[in-house]
UniProtKB/TrEMBL annotation:
One of its GO terms (molecular function) is endonuclease activity. GO terms for biological process: DNA integration; DNA recombination; proteolysis; transposition. The keyword Hydrolase applies. InterPro entries: GAG-pre-integrase_dom, Integrase_cat-core, Peptidase_aspartic_dom_sf, PolX-like_BBD, Retrotran_Ty1/copia-like, RNaseH-like_sf, RNaseH_sf. This is Integrase catalytic domain-containing protein. Residues 205-285 form the Integrase catalytic domain.
């Protein structure tokens, strides 16, 4: 009895993506604007050249489980506000495949829930892929044509005012295209990096110990091993001498403050005149 042989695997040094036989069998003609989520694809591929920003001609072959396909262009895909690069254009591709690994590389997170894949970026939902058979499908809007950012300063604003070194790294790695402008010309960055003090003079300070006390309650998360959830901090404005109390609940702050004031009165025969708080409930009750 002869042993069954495993099917031959594609042998190529540049096999960056795979198109499953199931997709080829499911789609009998080209479908533009439809994306299939593919966990086995190393790169996103599209079958509509108008989806790419600044496409550049390339000669590349991507091996699939059925047959190799030719890549004629590569560029940037604006997938509902998220720019993916590089993305390949396959003229004869039946559908467009969205690479799961490439989404992860661009900082997106995928969550599966009730037969749908939810794609998020910084806790914002970017897209939802619905299940159709054994595949997960999404459609781009008919007006979804990628916009080109020509001005170099636009990259600085789009990326959230990064440092010059960060933009240089992206340009060197080919993740973005365009000229480079120093962030020193950005008014927002200049204001954000101002190091001058907001006040020309120091705020008035107490001229005697324990004349003015600053106090605040901070939450501990997670609680301590003994169940304490809050910290009451008391600071003398003159000497910066501080006292810390651990509290199980905020209601205990009142008793601790009274105990602290009585201690000052008994030891120094002095009562604080000012109690500086944030007007929290534990201080006003």
């Amino acid at each position: 009895m002869s042993k069954s042989k495993d099917p031959p695997k594609p042998t190529t040094s540049d096999s960056e993506a795979f198109i499953t036989d199931e997709i080829n069998a499911m789609v009998s003609k080209q479908s533009h604007g439809i994306f299939y989520l593919d966990s086995g694809a190393g790169r996103t591929i599209v079958n509509d050249l108008t989806l790419l920003v600044d496409p550049t001609p390339v000669k590349k072959k991507i091996h699939t489980f059925s047959a190799p396909v030719n890549v004629t262009h590569q560029g940037t895909l604006d997938f509902k506000g998220i720019k993916l690069y590089p993305v390949y254009y396959v003229p004869n591709g039946p559908v467009s495949l969205l690479s799961v690994s490439q989404l992860c590389d661009h900082g997106l997170k995928l969550t599966m829930k009730s037969n749908v894949f939810i794609i998020k970026y910084e806790n914002q939902i970017v897209d939802v892929f619905q299940r159709e058979g054994n595949l997960f499908v999404s459609k781009l809007p008919s007006t979804s044509v990628c916009s080109v950012i020509n001005a170099p300063s636009d990259w600085h604003l789009t990326l959230g005012h990064p440092s010059d070194l960060y933009i240089k790294t992206l340009l060197r790695e080919g993740r973005i295209k365009g000229n480079f402008t120093q962030s020193s010309s950005c008014q927002v960055c200049q204001i954000a990096k101002i190091r001058n003090c907001p006040h020309s003079q120091e705020l008035p300070r107490a001229d005697a110990p324990f004349l003015k006390i600053h106090m605040d309650t901070l939450q501990i998360n997670p609680p301590t091993c003994k169940g304490y959830k809050y910290v009451l901090v008391l600071i003398d404005d003159f000497s910066w001498f501080n006292r810390v109390y651990l509290l199980s609940e905020k209601a205990q702050a009142e008793d601790q403050i009274k105990s602290y004031l009585n201690e000052i009165k008994n030891k120094l025969e002095n009562t604080p005149v000012y109690l500086h708080t944030d007007r929290g409930g534990e201080f006003s009750s």
